[in-house]
Write a structure and sequence with these properties.
Layout lengths: L3 H13 L1 H10 L6 H5 L2 E4 L11 E6 L2 E9 L5 E8 L3 E6 L5 E6 L12 E7 L5 H19 L7 H13 L1 E4 L2 E2 L3 H95 L3 H38 L5
Antiparallel strand pairs: 1-2, 2-5, 3-4, 5-6, 6-7, 7-8, 8-9
Helix pairs in contact: 4-5, 6-7
């Protein structure tokens, strides 16, 4: 890494040959160009005031006549005052740490000047890079002069380059250095994106979380309903099996009752002979008793069959109905 003295010597070397460098750039411009016909170039390696400042290099388009303006003096004397146009300026200033501040200053008149007092192109920590950067800085100076000079004829490219410098470089206003405009824009966009994007992301996450919980709740409820329906169907099938068994028992009972008729006929004669009851009276009592038993059995069988039909009908219908 270079020392402060090394950097100071590099700046002094560039300063010594700066006149040849920038005059060469100036001569590359056509003599018919408006910039050359309207202006003169001045290269001052040690500053324009006396050439005594070894830490300063100034490259500028000098003062030129604009017009005459009449003024009324204290004794009502009319005097003529020349209005002057000050040309754009490129400055290289060596700091105490032997870094170089590269600054552009605009062309201006007494009544008309740009918003900015100047533009800081860059701060070179290594003055040895000045020679390589000088061509680019010269092109910035020419475009800036064409754009800010009242006699300038800027091209679209000059306007675009000046616009780019004002937005991407640090400008100073009233002696105060301002942040880069593009940095301010990007910062505001980033803050907006961060705040709005973060809130949107939080809303999205909360919505997804709520929807997930609701879906899980619905799924659990449906699972519980399905389990209950499965249990009901299982109980219905179990009840149907029991009813089928009961129906089979009842049918067997009917068959047994029919077989009992024959037995009752046989016992009728024996009972009549044993108790001395007339066969006609015994037969009447026996028929009444058998009729009552048959009616009771038939009622039970009909009730069981109705229940069995109702359960089968419910089993075949959808659970939601």
């Amino acid at each position: 890494m270079s020392t402060r003295r090394d950097r100071a010597n590099d700046f002094k070397t560039f300063s010594a040959k700066s006149e040849d460098t920038f005059n060469g750039f100036w001569n590359d411009i056509s003599k018919e160009d408006n910039l050359r016909t309207e202006n003169d170039l001045n290269v001052c390696p040690k500053g324009a005031i006396g050439g005594l400042d070894e830490t300063l290099i100034e490259i500028f388009f000098g003062f030129k006549y604009h017009s005459w303006q009449k003024e009324l003096g204290d004794n009502f004397n009319v005097t003529n005052k020349a209005k002057i146009i000050e040309g754009a300026r490129l400055e290289y200033k060596l700091t105490d740490k032997s870094h170089v501040i590269c600054t552009l200053r605009p062309s201006k008149t007494e009544n008309l000047r740009p918003f900015e007092d100047g533009i800081v192109l860059e701060i070179l920590k290594e003055p040895s890079k000045l020679e390589a950067k000088s061509k680019q800085h010269w092109e910035y100076l020419v475009s800036y002069m064409r754009t800010t000079d009242v006699d300038g004829h800027p091209s679209y490219y000059d306007h675009l380059k000046t616009f780019w410098l004002r937005k991407t470089k640090r400008c100073f206003y009233n002696g105060k250095l301002a942040p880069r405009k593009i940095s301010e824009k990007l910062s505001s966009v980033f803050i907006w994106a961060f705040t709005v994007g973060l809130s949107g992301a939080l809303i999205f996450v909360i919505t997804i979380w709520l929807n997930t919980n609701s879906e899980n709740k619905v799924v659990n409820e449906l699972g519980g309903i399905a389990t209950e329906l499965s249990s009901i169907v299982h109980n219905q099938e179990k009840l149907l099996n029991e009813l089928e068994t009961l129906k089979l028992i009842t049918n067997n009972q009917k068959i047994s009752l029919k077989k009992q008729d024959d037995t009752n006929d046989f016992l009728l004669d024996i009972n009549r002979l044993t108790h001395g009851v007339s066969s006609k009276q015994f037969e009447v009592e026996h028929k009444e008793m058998r009729k009552a038993v048959l009616l009771a059995n038939e009622a039970n069988i009909a009730a069981l069959e109705n229940i069995l039909l109702m359960l089968k009908d419910k089993k075949t219908k959808p659970a939601g109905n």
